[in-house]
Structures are given as C-alpha cells and as structure tokens.
Design goal:
Elements lengths: L1 E2 L23 E2 L20 H23 L8 H12 L6 E2 L6 E5 L5 E7 L26 H16 L7 E7 L9 H6 L8 E12 L3 E3 L2 E2 L3 E10 L3 E2 L9 H19 L7 E9 L5 E2 L2 E10 L2 H19 L5 E10 L3 E2 L1 H15 L4 E3 L9 H5 L3 E10 L19 H18 L1
Parallel strand pairs: 5-6, 5-7, 7-18, 8-17
Antiparallel strand pairs: 1-2, 3-4, 4-6, 8-18, 9-16, 10-14, 10-15, 11-13, 12-14
C-alpha cells in the first residue's frame, strides 16, 4: 500500500508551511513509519505521556492514512477498500474488529470493563470530481473526499492505535467506522441495527469545519445540525394546447402553485422558532412552449432544527399539497423521504467533551459554534444514547482563504488530524474517568 507525498519540487504545502522533500518516489505505510513532511502537533506536551510518545512516533502515519484514503475515495456503501484498510491497521496492533454484514463499516472495542464510550467516524466520499491540484488528489473519476471523511477515518485510526498502546484504560472504547453517511437515511442506521450501540453509555464524533481555525473545536449544547428530508412531487395532466387551458389541467401552473404555496403554508403552520425551511432544488416539465405537458416533477429538501416539528412534517406536507392542488384538477403522487434527525448534543456529554478538548488543546481550543441547516446522520445515534458532536477546525487562518466543504476545491490543514486524535482520546478518557 502506498501514499503519495508532496512533490519534491514543491517547497511548501497549500498553506505556505515549509515541507521536507520525500526520500523516494513514494511513501510507504509501514510499522516503521513513512517518509513524509512532519506537521506541527498543536497539543504536544499535554499528555498523557503515552499519547505524546505515540504521536511523536506515528504522526506521519496518520497523515499517510488520510492521504491514501483521499487518493482512493469510495462512494456510499462501496467503501470496501477503506474498510479493509481500517481492519488491517486495527489488527496490526492486536485489536479484533468486525465488519458489518454488508461488507462496509467496522466496529471494534478497546479495553475491558462494563462501561463503554463510543467514538465514530464516517468513511464515504462524495460523487464529485476533485479540483485541488494536490499530489494525492483523487484517482477515481467522479468521486472525491470533499467533505473530510478521509480525515475523520484517519483521526479515529490514530486514536484507536494510540489507545491500544495505553498502559491501562478505565473502561472500553468502541470504535465505529461508519459507511454511507452521505446518503439518506444514512449508514448510522445500519450500525445501530448491527448492535454497535449495545452497552454504550455515550457517543462522540467530530466533523471538519473549514470556517474554524485549526487547533480549535466548536461545540454547543442542543441542536447542532438540522433534520433533512427529501420531497419529490409528481404531477400528471391530460395535456393539451396552451391556447385552451380551460379544457385541460394546467400542469405548469400547478407546479408553480406548489413551488410558492407550500413554503408559504409551512411558514404559517410551523413554529418559526424551529428553523424550518423548504427549498426546491429541481423542477422539470414539458418541452414545447405551446403545449401543456402531461407530467412534471418537483424535488426539494425540507429542513428543521426542532425534533418535535420533524416528526409532524410528513403529514403536514401531504395535507398541504392536497389542499393546494385540489382546485387545479391535476393528478399527483407525493414521495416524502424522511432523512436524518437533528444532531442534538446533551449538556452533560457536551461538558465532558469540552473538558476533554481543554485537556487536549488547552482552554483556547474550545470554541462556540452556530447551528447549521445541514444534515448529519450522527443524529440517529443520539436517538438511542446520549452524546455530543463537535466541529474540528481545519482552516489554517488568515490570510488563507476558507474553502467550503462539498466543493471540488476543498482543502484542509493537516495539523487538524493530530488535534482530532488528541480530542477524541481525551474525550474518551474524561468520560470513562
């Protein structure tokens, strides 16, 4: 297995820090480490001693794992090679991981005892073509790690191997390497169905945040992300000539009525404090300017930050669509696909994660963060156990630009990988203490 390092003729990384040229044409992943440019460990010296020692000796391995995964992305439910890599690296330090029945996704326990805390990372890539110019860019056309899941996987691998070398743990740490976060309703449901949360008292996760400076972790009590559902509405009409709309059912007019009317209705029937928003993303109907089409389709996403509102949205949307279309004479079918619940971090788990982050990175390492309208299937875990989710800063800071996720140009500061390892390790130790 190989991972490409920065080109020898490139004196710096994308963020301007000097890099050491490679000793050969490629860097090998091995127990002896890899020939790669080191990155600064922003939490160095904060201990425990075995974690400092492990990161000092293996930091470049963490980078190598991330770069290999980045260069070889796999889409949701096809993360077979990534799963194999995770299993191989866990077994290499004496751990006993098991793979979900579908062949993607890994669960593994470290330590012994009745108490168990879980750490989760997602592994899938996005159906995008990368445009970063990095020497370890995606080698797969139409697939790229533009959401940072390659970093999440490498961070959890680093935390796992560091914890595996700890002199003693006060309980068990369960590692959850999850497939298919990018598709609704999400691979978290597969993990839960397979028993990944059995015996777990709390669960934690991190997600890269390109708006937050590296070395900081953003967290908040309560909703961090929103529920995200998909709506697909198909309309049918006998069709006809646009000169005689009174002799048919005007399908395009009906689509327009729903496009403007449904968001307006919801804004009056849902508590505005819930952050509920419906946005249409696609509409298709007809070809000719003088023909009323016989069919059309409307697709959009409906998001809310309120869990109670989320449970009531499907019947509310169905009744509202029916009332809007009833006078217009068109036929319709509504496909309402529930996505993921909001991620809601409880106060106790957030306090534990905050304490772990402060131990890992210092008091300045903790930042507040805003709620997002984005969806994240980590919310499914929190339907079953308490836990907290946080945002890991990956922005190098000014004057570097902020490169948003889900874009072909997304780049992260690799110093964040070591910050992530420290944060997860300390959070687990703090929770089990």
């Amino acid at each position: 297995m190989t991972v490409l390092d920065s080109r020898p003729d490139v004196p710096g990384d994308p963020h301007g820090r000097m890099m050491t040229p490679m000793e050969g044409p490629e860097a090998l992943i091995s127990e002896a480490g890899v020939s790669m440019a080191p990155v600064e460990d922003l939490g160095a010296g904060r201990g425990p001693f075995w974690l400092d020692d492990w990161l000092r000796a293996n930091a470049t391995d963490v980078l190598a794992w991330r770069r290999h995964i980045h260069a070889h992305p796999e889409l949701s439910r096809h993360e077979f090679a990534t799963t194999e890599l995770v299993v191989t690296l866990l077994r290499a330090v004496g751990l006993k991981p098991w793979v979900l029945p579908g062949g993607t996704g890994v669960v593994c326990d470290i330590g012994t005892g009745d108490r168990c805390v879980a750490l989760r990372a997602d592994m899938d890539a996005l159906p995008l073509t990368e445009d970063t110019g990095l020497p370890y860019s995606s080698t797969v056309e139409g697939a790229a790690h533009m959401c940072g899941h390659d970093a999440h996987t490498a961070i959890l691998l680093g935390a796992a191997r560091a914890l595996a070398g700890a002199p003693e743990l006060p309980g068990r740490v369960r590692l959850i390497f999850q497939a298919a976060e990018e598709v609704m309703p999400g691979g978290a449901l597969d993990m839960i169905a397979a028993g990944a949360l059995e015996g777990v008292e709390r669960i934690y996760g991190l997600h890269v945040d390109p708006r937050l400076e590296v070395g900081r972790v953003g967290m908040r009590v309560g909703a961090l992300t929103s529920a995200a559902d998909l709506i697909e509405l198909r309309l049918t009409s006998p069709g006809g000539h646009t000169s005689r709309p009174h002799l048919t059912a005007d399908l395009v007019h009906a689509l327009g009525s729903v496009i403007t009317g449904l968001p307006a209705l919801l804004s009056r029937r849902v508590d505005p404090r819930s952050g509920t928003v419906l946005v249409w993303g696609a509409v298709h109907a007809g070809q000719a300017a003088n023909a009323v089409p016989q069919d059309g389709v409307l697709r959009g996403t409906l998001r809310t930050a309120d869990h109670e509102v989320w449970t009531a949205l499907e019947p509310l949307v169905a009744s509202s669509v029916e009332s809007l279309l009833a006078p217009l004479g068109v036929g319709f079918s509504l496909d309402y696909r529930r996505g993921v619940p909001p991620v809601v971090s409880d106060a106790d788990s957030t306090a534990l994660m905050r304490a772990g982050t402060e131990a890992a990175l210092g008091e300045s390492g903790v930042a507040s963060t805003e709620q997002s309208s984005g969806g994240e299937d980590f919310g499914w875990y929190l339907e079953h156990v308490q836990g907290a989710f946080a945002r890991l800063g990956v922005w190098p800071g000014p004057p570097a630009p902020q490169s948003d996720i889900h874009r072909p140009t997304f780049i992260l500061d690799e110093r964040a990988l070591l910050c992530g390892v420290r944060t997860l390790v300390h959070t687990a130790l703090t929770t089990l203490a």
